[in-house]
Specification:
The chain has 412 residues and is an alpha+beta fold. The protein contains 16 helices and 11 strands. The strands form 2 sheets. Strands 1, 3, 4, 6, 9 and 11 form a 6-stranded antiparallel β-sheet that branches. The protein has a 5-stranded antiparallel β-sheet with strand order 2-5-10-7-8, with no helix packed on it. Strand 7 and strand 8 form a beta hairpin. Helix 1 packs antiparallel against helix 2, helix 9 runs antiparallel to helix 10 and helix 9 packs parallel to helix 11. Keywords: Membrane, Transmembrane, Transmembrane helix.
Length: 412
Amino acid sequence: MARSPAFKRSPLAITAACLVGLALIVINGLYLIAERIPQSQAERSIAIAPWRGQGYGDAAVDILSDPKAASQRTSQIRSLALNAIMRSPLETGAYYALVRVLEAEGKESLADRLAKATEDLSRHDPNVQLYLTSRAAVRNDVGGVMRHLNVVLRTSRSARSVAFPILCNALTDQRSIALVARNMRDNANWVIPFVEQCSSSAPTVGNLAQTLLEAPAIARDALPRVHVNILANLVEQKKLSLAGRYYAMVTRSPADRDGRIMDRFDRVDELPHFDWVATADGGVYIDQLGAGGGVAVSTDTSLVPLMERMHTLAPGRYRLVSQVKDLELPARASMFWTIQCFGTDASLAVLQLRTSRRPQAVTFDVPDSNCEGQQVRLRSDGAGQSREITAEIPFVRIEQASRPASGKEPAG
């Protein structure tokens, strides 16, 4: 049987195939080049690849980044957006540009419908989500604000600079606390950076603290400076009970069930106000005697306040209990604990210290008003002498002598 002759391509066909292949390579190369051009140079992208819809969409969005230019170039924005959609019907940036044009023309209802349709097309466009966030805020729809912001923050790291201030401001609304906490408990990648930024915003720090109380695992993952900022702001704003609850949550140190607050000085100078802090500018030496093993204090007797920390006890009757070992004092000098209401000089109790095998105690009352926080201070009185005072203090303790009048347990 005769073999069929092999198919032979004509020189013209081979040339045409080569030209088509070369054209495809060039077009693909131009497309890749255009894709790498940043949005701010969108016009260059259009010049390189005019068939590519994203270039037109990027150009429209780029104009919108300058509000003054956008207000004067709405026709150009519309034209670019329509060109983008004609070439790439799924180009969400172009639809967002049209949304903003409609908004500028006062057609907000139509703009809202187009924005929702664009969201259905793709939930990953941060500009569309931020627009929907702003519209939800206008409607006072806290849930809507949170829903759209959560999408933005999950899908666009670059949007944080815009979204974080909005979310932080949303915390001024008490209704947002539970919603923010619920989103934060998802442990999305934006949570810790948001907490760090918002913790320095004094107007919302109270609600941020309440939010973190509902999401304690998130709070404990935050950097120490976050807790420093929050506690410092809360105390400055006199939100002392909230500060006490926040401190107890972060340090996992609530009062015992019987209301006893045992302090073995295991936290010194880490968090403001609620950790032990050396109050004198210099000359006070505080050594911790092992983990939870008490503290050794050495000071020049000319210095009166030595160290202090804050509590937030509910109104009621309490006992201040402490023990001292190896107290060395010059004649007529003394060392003693005082407890007083925060921001006042009025003393609730004074406990004079002396070396003893048994604890010493004094009873005091926390009044019903104007005493939300209490400062416990270790003081010395050198009686005008300049010799050194040293002491080893295993613990200081506050315990209930009777149940607080409010029926609340001490916060710590």
